Amino acid sequence: MAETKLSCLKDKRWSLDGMTALVTGATRGIGHAIAEELAEFGAAVHICSRNQQDIDQCLEEWNSKGFRITGSACDVLSRDQRENLIKTVASTFDGKLNILTRIRYAIAEELAEFGAAVHICSRHQQDIDQCLEEWNSKGFRITGSACDVLSRDQRENLIKTVASTFDGKLNILKSAVEVDKLVEAMEYQIPIGRLGEPKDISGLVAFLSLLAASYITGQIITLDGGYIIRTPNGTEPNRRPQSQPKDNYPCAVIPHDEKLMAETKLEFFKDKRWSLHGMTALVTGGTRGIGYAIAEELAEFGAAVHICARNQQDIDQCLEQWSNKGFLTTGSVCDVLSPDQREKLMKNVASIFNGKLNILINNAGTASTKSVLDYTREDVATLFGTNFESCFHLCQLAHPLLKASGYGRIVFISSISGLKAFPLCSIYGASKGALNQFTKNIALEWAKDNIRANTVAPGPVKTVLLDFLMKSPGVDKNVETLISGSPVSRI
Ligand SMILES: NC(=O)c1ccc[n+]([C@@H]2O[C@H](COP(=O)([O-])OP(=O)(O)OC[C@H]3O[C@@H](n4cnc5c(N)ncnc54)[C@H](OP(=O)(O)O)[C@@H]3O)[C@@H](O)[C@H]2O)c1
């Protein structure tokens, strides 16, 4: 077997070793990248597509890399073939399947189902013939011809064929004709400034398949370079997007002695997409709870991490623990409610990390529970000051450092209270809701500086903060409700 991405890893949350996966439509494109990524993480993978020759070619390539991948032909459109596929998978994996990923493109079919006459193209005449046979047997008006859309001549030929097929009239143009112009137009709409690549998708799919992601369920995660956050006819983008050059990973920005550093989670890893080696991070509220776990995880992935909280003793304790493990961590006191202390914090961070910050985790937050009528102006100022304004201001202060790093990442820790209404949580929920919206705007504005912004909105998590909330009058009986309302049945 190949050395899997994480075979050297003790933390099984980041390995798929021993797991089984089925990826449909995996001989090229996104499915191909997903199958390969899952196999690299140690999973045994079965793939299917309609073309046995393509499958054989993929398997040969993967088997020569030592991946455990099998495959069989299946047209997922056919019920019989689907049943056969699952029988094959069941016998290959002894009746146990951990991961099922389904990729399928059905634009042509859907248009035909709505009564349109459709012409399709792809590079392989054999694939086209197979599709046409199927579709024609269903009575769809679909024709097709071979065309490699990257060739200008073949594109011109395609248009001639389409013109003669449809008597010179075309209502809908889908996909890749005039590919350059279409791509350019689409890239212009995407804040990150480029179309996605299969590897962009496969990384997330692999992550979602890992034990490390086991508390994520029922989410729809858009992976679109920020496409969805723009209003369709909004103002002119403030830039011509600059794509980040491929493999432009940040160089080490802080001097450190490699020999003294802990073995990082992904030290043995050639694929830099799964490493934070050489990166710098600031985690606010990093002395306990969610912030502590984040700081430790980032350090385990190789980042140099600075934490802040209000209590120096707690900071010292954390740093001692982490330094015993060989992590590159520093820390300083900062009450994020105070603008002066935020400025001091960022000066500190700039000097420790030589003016470059890769990752800003806005985690520190506070909560209180009162009815709308009982909240005072001071309560609102404290909740919004800590949970929203501090994050906004820290982003402003960090911008030059994030930009200078060439690879900036901001993660806000919001809450499901910012998405749903919970009793006595109106102002906490509003402050987190503000963060959710702010994430979209900052992601849009700062994409041009290679800074990405995202929010993680946790449900109830066992921490001091939750303990405090649960003891508040009128809230304590909600624990049972919270657990029973969660599909995973745990906090
Ligand atoms: N736990 C949950 O159920 C839950 C659910 C959804 C979202 N969240 C969010 O997750 C984040 C972390 O919560 P948690 O549950 O991990 O809380 P926690 O256990 O109370 O930890 C909070 C951390 O932030 C620090 N902190 C608090 N106020 C601060 C301030 N004004 N300035 C600087 N540091 C401050 C604390 O240290 P000091 O007190 O020493 O300053 C501590 O390190 C918060 O934004 C919270 O709203 C939590």
From TrEMBL:
Protein's name according to its UniProt entry: Tropinone reductase I
Gene3D superfamilies per the UniProt record, alphabetical: NAD(P)-binding Rossmann-like Domain
Keywords: NADP, Oxidoreductase
Similarity-based family: Belongs to the short-chain dehydrogenases/reductases (SDR) family. SDR65C subfamily.
Molecular function, one GO term: oxidoreductase activity
InterPro entries the UniProt entry points to: NAD(P)-bd_dom_sf, Sc_DH/Rdtase_CS, SDR_fam, TR
Source organism of this protein record: Psophocarpus tetragonolobus (Winged bean)
Organismal lineage: Eukaryota, Viridiplantae, Streptophyta, Embryophyta, Tracheophyta
